Structures are given as C-alpha cells and as structure tokens.
Amino acid sequence: MAGNRASPKSYGTVLVVGGCGFLGSRVVEQLLNFPAEAQDESQRQSGKASSSNGTVNGQHQTPHSDELRSPSSSNITIFQFPSLRSRYPPISSSGTQVHALDLRCTQNLFSGCTYHEADITNPDALLEVFRQVKPDVVINTASPSWEAPAAILRKVNIDGTRTLLEVAGAKLGDWGGHCKVFVHTSSSSVVHDGDSDLINADERYPYVCPNPREYYSETKVHAEKLALEANDKPEYGHMLTCAIRPAGIVGEGDRGGFSGGILRTASVAPAWQLHIQLGTGDNLFDNTYVHNVVYGLLCATDALLATHARRQSGKAVELDHERVAGEAFNVTNDQPAYFWDSSRYLYSRYGRDINIDKIWVLPTGLAYAVGAAAETFNWLTGRKGKLNRQTVKYTCINRYYSCDKLRRRTGYKPIVPIDEGFARAVKWYKLDEEQTPRAQGQKKTQ
Amino acid sequence: MPKVRDILYYAVHVQELRSIIQWKVWHNPVHERDESTETESAKICFKYLDKTSRSFSAVIKELHPELLLPVCVFYLVLRGLDTIEDDTSISATTKEPLLRNFHENLEVDGWHFDGNRPEEKDRELLVNFRYIITEFKNMKPAYQAIIKDITQKMGNGMADYCLNAEFNEVGVNTVEDYDLYCYYVAGLVGEGLTRMFVESKFANPGLLERPQLHRSMGLFLQKVNIIRDIREDFDDHRKFWPREIWSQYVDSFEDLFKPENREKALNCSSHMILNALDHADDCLFFLAGLREQSVFNFCAIPQSMAIATLDLCFRNYAMFQRNIKITKGEACQLMTASTQNLQVVSEAFRKHLHSIRRKNRPEDPNFLKISIACGKVEQFIESIFPSQKVEEILAKGKAAELQAAISAREKTAPEVGSKKETLVLLGGVLSMMLVITGIMTYIAWLMGARFDVAFEEIKQSWAQLTGGSLFQGLDQVQPTNHPTGHGEL
User: Fold this and answer.
1) Separation CA B68–CA B37 (nearest Å)
2) CATH code of the domain in which A129 resides
3) Rounded distance between C-alpha atoms, residue B451 and residue B349, angstroms
4) How does pLDDT run across B10-64, given as a tens digit for each residue?
C-alpha cells in the first residue's frame, strides 16, 4: 500500500454534518490527515532532528498488516499499530477546508477544523452556518443511535436529512451558492427486515419499508430515498448526491455499536454469560472499521466531484455501470467473520478468559425463549436490558454484504483489516475506561 | 489383510466404513485405460507410475485418453528430476548441471542415469528412463513443449536451492522464500497441468490469464504437506516452515518439539495453517474452470484431501509427535464427494472450514484472522453457489405485493357484503324474537294475566331491596315503555 502514494487530494470546503459524533469525528480526523498521529510521531522524533511536517515517516518499518501480530489482552493498551496516516491516501491541507456541524460541539474536537453548533432540523440555523461556511461538499453523518426513541429517529433522520438537503441545494433559501456534492451516510440495514439471513447482499436488494422490527432502519430508508431523489435536480441546483451504507461500524470512539456493545458486556457480564453461545455459531457477520467507512465516503466524494467537473466541462454523461451520482453503495471491510468469533475476540482482548471447551451452545429455538425471558425479566424489574428477542436474532443470522459496487465504481478498498479494527476498538475502549471511570451515557453513533 | 486395530476402528466408525464400501462398490472411473492398445513402453510407464506414486497413480489412470499418457509421462519426468535432487550422495557440483539440463535429456533417445545411490527409492526409474523418453516423443508436440518448459524451470529452481547454502543450513527464511520454494516444487506443476488442460480444450482458457489460480492450486497442496510432515521433515533435518513465522513463537526451530512449548507450537501451527488457508478460495475458483469430469476429479480429489488434512492438523499437537493422516474412511468419503461436481466439493470445504472454526481458540494470537480466512472462503462459495439470490428476493417481494393488492381488493368488496349479511341476519333474529314476545304477551293478556298487579309487586319488592332511591329514575321511564306497548295492544 505504501510506496505508490498518490498526490494529496483536494476536496475544497467540506462540511461534515454530525462532525462530533462517532463517525463524523473520524471523517474530520481523516480529512486532517490524522493530526493525533502526527503529534505522536513528532514526539517520538523529538530526540532526533525534527522534520517540520513529519509526513511519510519510515515506511519500511510499517509491517504489512497481514504479518502484523495480533496484540494480546495483556499488552493491548500499549500496543502500537502501524500508523493510519501512512496507509490512507493523503489529503491536501491547502486544498481542503474542514468544517464540522453538530448539535453540540463539546467532544472529539480537532484543531484545524472549524466547528459550528446548529440543529439540522432548524432551517434558519442551518442557513446561517451555510452562509458562513459556503461548503462545496456536505458529508452527512448525523444520526441518532438505533435505540433512540421513534420521535427522535424520525426527526433527525427524516426531517433533518430533508432540511439539510434543501439547504445544501439552496432550495430553502439563498446562502450565496449551492453545494456541488452531498454524500449521505445511510445504513446497510435499509434492506434488512431484522429477521432473515442476508448473504452477500448487494444494492439490488429491496428496501424494507415499513420495517416493524427496526424503526431505525425504516427512517434510514426514508432518508436515503430523500437524498437520492434530490440528485441532479434543478431545484437543488443540480447538486450531486449518493448514499453510503456502512455495515456495522467498529473502531475508536464506538460506544453504542457492535464493538462498544460487546465491550460493555465484557466489562460487566459474569463469566458464565460470556460462555453462552446462541445458535450453531456458523453465521457470518459484517463489521467495518470506522476509517474504512470514512474512506468509502471520501471515495464517493471524489467520484461525485469528478462527475461534477466532467459535467461542468460539458463532457459526455458517464455510463450506467460507472455512475455514482444518485446511487447507493454498501461499504464493508469485505471480511465477514463468524459472529461469535468476533465477540469472543473482543471479550478475550478486553481481558476476559474465554475457555472454548466450556461454551454452552443453545439451539436457536431455545435462544428465542432466552430472549423472551430476558424481556419479561426486564419488564418486571423495569430495567433496560440489551438482551431481547431482536438482539438474540442478530446473534444467530448471517448478515453480510457485497461491496463490489463501491469497489468497481469508486476504487474503494478496505485498507485496515477488520482484526486490526477490532483490536484498535479494544485499545481505545480500555484507555477511555481508564480516563472516564464509569457512567457513560448513550452517545450518538453512526 | 486388515489389521486388528483397523477392524476395531471401523467397528466404531460405521459411517466411515460405509464410505469405504460405497467408494469400492459404486465408483465407476470416468475413463479406463485400455491396455490392449498400449505400446510396451506405455505399459512400462504405468508400471513406474504405480511404483513411484501412492496417491496420484489412481487418479491419473482415470484421466481422459487424450491426457492419460501426457500426464503420466509429465509426472514421471518430474519424479526423475526429484530423484536426482533428493539424492544427498551426489555432490552439488555434479548435481547442479544435471538439474539445469535435465529437460534436454528428453530429446535424447535411450538416455538414462545410474548415478543414484542404491538405496534411493526411485533409482530404477532413472535407470530405465529410455521408455519414458520413447513415450514422450510419441505424444503431441504441444504437450512435449509444455513438459520440457516446466522441467527446465523446475530444474533451474531446484539447482538454485541446491547451491543456496543458507537454505541448506537454516531452511526457509521469509514467507516470501517459502512461497517461492513451494512455487518451484508445486506451483510449476500446476502451471504445466493447466496448460495441458487448456491445450486439450478440457479447461477454460481464462485459467491461463489468472496465473494466481493455478499457482494457488500447487501452493495449497504443497503447504498442507509441509505442515503435516513437520515431524518427519524435522527428523530428516529439513526445515520448510519459514523462520519468519516460527521465530514469532520460539527462539529455535527445535524448541517447537519440546513438550514445555506445546502451546507455542500449536499457535505456530495455526499461523502456518492460516497462511495455507489463504489459497483455498483460489483453488475452488480454479476448479470452476474445468470442463471435463476426469480432469475435474484429478484436480479436486487432492484439494479436498488437503482441506481435510488442514482440518486434521489444526490445533492437533499429535502432528509434532508423529506422522498424522486422514483415515481411509474419510479419504473415501472425500473421493466420492470430489468425483461429482464443484458444489459437492464446495460443501466438503465448508464442512471442514466449520470444523476448523469450532476448534479455533480465542487465546490463539491468530484467532480472528483464522475466523476471517474461513469466512473469506465461505463468502466465495456463496458467490459461486448463492444460497440467497437477489432475483428470487425481488420476485418474492413482487409476488407478495401482488398478493397483498389482490387480497386487499378481495377483502374490501366481500367484507362489506358479509357485514351487511350479518346485520340483516341479526336484525331478522331480533325482530323475530320481538314478534314472538309480543304474541306470547298478548296470549297471556287474553288469558287474563294481570300485568298491572305483577308490575306493582315487582316495583314494591325492588323498592324494598334498593330502598326506593334507584327506582325513582326508572319510575319515569318504565311507564312510558311498557304501557305504550301495552296500550297499543
């Protein structure tokens, strides 16, 4: 990967909506070329003659990730992963201005990014920000957690996306221009009914709407449709849009997603609970490292900017099979792993002992009974437990996607392998736990 | 005669016994060699084939007549080359030119070699090599060219290794060296065979455009053998496991075999297995390009044996103590599966992947990587034999929509009708009851029933019960009700 590094890419003025959230803050981080790593590097180098900007540092010592030994639980908090900076394509700092918008800009802040507080369901506040920023590109990552109440899901995902699109396309009012490109973060769950297997599912799979089992997914369908329908419309100033559907995001900063959820279990559950397996364990599940998702968003942005430039210069319209504008794309790590293996990896790297000979396997049918019993128990005791019939279902089904379309049309490829992504998630989680002991409320995810 | 141990084993493992019987009874070779049309030298070639190869002889002899002799001769030529390379009694200076020029001997009538030490097991093959040359010259020039080319490449590769002092001292160093070594001894065979298959039109020419695939075919088999034979090779002072891998677990290669390093040795072996697993999906991809049953069988049988062997070795400490191999019953079962079609072979692969998955342990440093490697092969199998098809899902969705639309239309119309019917029926029953009540009251009145007295009495007893308060309201309603009905009557 290193070696044939492309020249830095320019994106113009980018507004990352939801830029303080789990995914959005990683978008900011990648657009700024991983400033924290640059700091680490210069600190480590401070003894030697310091190079002014510290880019491309010692590529030969970055091992190919396949040969990278996996950290064990004893050394995970001090384990040094090969740098992200050296692996993801560099981004031109002069050709890219990074702005972030969030409801509250109090966490995950990076110097080098300008922050704006606004509610995306409020058109006037949005217009004000757009007047200041005048973005060329909007990357929308704002979304509540899948567990949020229905009213919030509807308000942020549907109303928020609509308002944002209308403001970006200058349909709702004049802010001195309109965006060239709008990349919307959707969810791979828009084609999942929360019950059936999904095996190598591609973008041709039909939307599940209404979705009685997962209202979150239903609101994501509406949002995605809004984003795609706005593509290249005169009333939106011919702004180009596309939707990226991540499949299970894991990595640094994840509290409410797969790695966050499993690690929370690892931190509190008794040993016997970690030794229960529901179903046969042969089911494959997709998870995607957060910076690969970000890279997918940026690849799509690149492609849309290229299309925009192509149209401006009056060249022929691209062919159907190369089109990115108005299309939806799965983004995955292209490395589905067995669900229970991923969980056990997180348990064991967190520091819990998992003895494979002591696993209790409950057949799927019994698993539902467990889910139902947990629901009853939660209802009786008034607790808000993670275990219910729906979560039980996810542990027993195949759920993995094909990301060929994104690969073919934008040149995307997963750069950090998923095992490293999981290990990074554990390292971050443990360090975060040490810094903020106990009591962390629900934060925004994807 | 079967050994007592075997009899006991199969008495317990009836399923495996069944597989053996099934294979012996039901397996019909796709093609059988016809000895009556064979030349004397061809017969001698087959004799040596039986002598030199344990596993390959049977599958080669079932090949399509077009490829039967070419593949047999190819095998014997490479075996001859191998016999020179293996012989430690020949000095390096003598050996090197012998290996590099071995391909030229194929053109020399009556060439043979008797410089091997007496105990070299395939010595006789080289002593009588002239028969193989005779058959080589009898075959199509295209096949001759392929065999000659591969023999030359392999001879040169072997010569390089034989001169490489580091290799002879410390064994394979890096993973890259390991791949290269496996390429010379097995990947090249895969290339030669693929070219022969394509030449005979029994394989998709596209296989030659993806050299990665036939390379993987050879590398997968070779790596599995290297993993399984760890103990045997160690006893023979040969180290094929690359230092780059084992040095992550132990300081010296010998330490792998010390009982106190049991866990380290197992973790090292899973690293080696992970490395080999990487080729498995390519192998299935390759098999998809074959167009003739006997060629398919020829390629698929060793591959399924390899995945089964990998499964057997995975987290099995016995491999460091002795030579392990899959049982005859399992072998027969795999051969039955491998002589059908790719889907059956893929299922056999999947079965072993799941078995590997079940043995995988979280404390193993390569735990998740192995899980991902198994997942990758399974995802590939799903891409060639999808258990879920988007067309079907779309069709099902459409059918469901249509069904919903139809039933919605049916529902609205007849439901209104049935509701009306129910109402009519209910109304009929109620009015009938009213009429009957009326008639009965009328008859009672005619017969002198004193309703006024009865009513008065009820009123009084009710007043007694409730203390009169409740009745006040009813009092005003009742007279309007009953008396009107009565009055009309």
Assistant:
1) 13
2) 3.40.50.720
3) 93
4) 888 888 888 888 887 878 888 888 888 888 889 999 999 988 877 788 889 899 9
Q: Say if residues B131 and B45 touch (Cβ distance below 8 Å).
A: yes
Orientation angle between helical segments B65-86 and B92-100, nearest 10 degrees: 160
- Specify the 3-state DSSP secondary structure of A241: strand
Compute the count of residue pairs across chains A and B with CB atoms less than 8 Å apart. Answer: 85
As a whole-number percent, the residues of chain B with pLDDT over 70 amount to 93
Distance CA A138, CA A297 (A): 11
Instruction: Give pLDDT, residue B417.
Output: 59
Structural domain range at position A321: 12-42+64-255+288-335+401-418
- What distance in Å separates the CA atoms of residue A147 and residue A185, rounded to the nearest whole number? 18
In single-letter form, the type of residue at position B259 comes to P
What domain count does chain A have?
1
Number of C-alpha atoms within 13 angstroms, CB side, residue A199?
21
Parallel, antiparallel, or unpaired: how do β-strands A249-250 and A288-289 relate? parallel
Cβ-based contacts of B361 with chain A (< 8 Å): 356
Q: Tokens 């539902």 map to which residue?
A: A368
Q: What is residue A6's predicted lDDT score, i.e. its pLDDT?
A: 67
The answer to whether B174 faces chain A, any CB pair under 8 Å, is no
- Cβ(B368)–Cβ(A72) below 8 Å: no
Which DSSP symbol is given to B254? G
Which of B359, B369, B383 has its CB closest to that of A70? B369
Residue of A357, A419, A420 best to disrupt the B interface, most CBs of B under 10 A: A419
Q: In this structure, are residues A31 and A96 in contact, taking their beta carbons and an 8 Å threshold? A: yes
Q: Which pLDDT band holds residue B168 (cuts at 50, 70, 90)?
A: confident
Span B333-341, mean pLDDT? 92
pLDDT at B472 over 60: no
User: Is A405 within a domain?
Assistant: yes
Q: Which two tokens stand for residue B432?
A: 């009938």
Assign 3-state DSSP to chain A and report helix, strand, coil percentages, each to 5: 40, 15, 45
Q: Which residues contact A377 (CB under 8 A, 6 or more apart)?
A: A383, A385
How many Å lie between the alpha carbon of B376 and the closest alpha carbon of chain A? 6
Closest CA to A287 of A417, A147, A396: A417
DSSP for A24-85, please give it: HHHHHHHHTT-HHHHHHHHHHHTTSPPPSS--S--GGGS--GGGPPPPPTTTTTT--PPPST
**Cα torsion angle, B156, B162, B164, B166, sign:** positive
How confident is residue A384, by pLDDT bands cut at 50, 70 and 90? low
Measured in whole angstroms, how far is the alpha carbon of residue A291 from the centre of its chain? 7
Name every residue whose Cβ is closer than 8 Å to that of residue A438 and which is 6 or more positions away in sequence. Answer: none
> Is residue A412 situated within a structural domain?
yes
Average pLDDT over residues B140-145: 96
Q: Give, in order, the Cα–Cα distances in Å from A73 to each of A175, A269, A347, A374, A433.
A: 52, 17, 9, 30, 15
**pLDDT tens per residue, range A286-332:** 999 999 999 999 999 999 999 999 988 888 778 888 899 999 999 99
Q: Amino acid identity, residue B428?
A: G
B362–A419 CB contact, under 8 Å: no
Return the residue matching tokens 């004000």. Answer: A128
Q: How far apart are CA A49 and CA A361, in angstroms?
A: 58
Query: Do the domain assignments include residue A95?
Result: yes
C-alpha pair distances (Å), A395 with each of A197, A364, B335, B386, B470: 11, 9, 35, 21, 64
Beta strands in B174-279 (DSSP E): none
Asked if B369 lies within 8 A of A69 by C-beta distance, the reply is no
* CB A288 within 8 Å of CB A403: no
Closest CB from B175, B369, B379 relative to A419: B369
| Rounded CA separation B418/B427 (Å) | 14
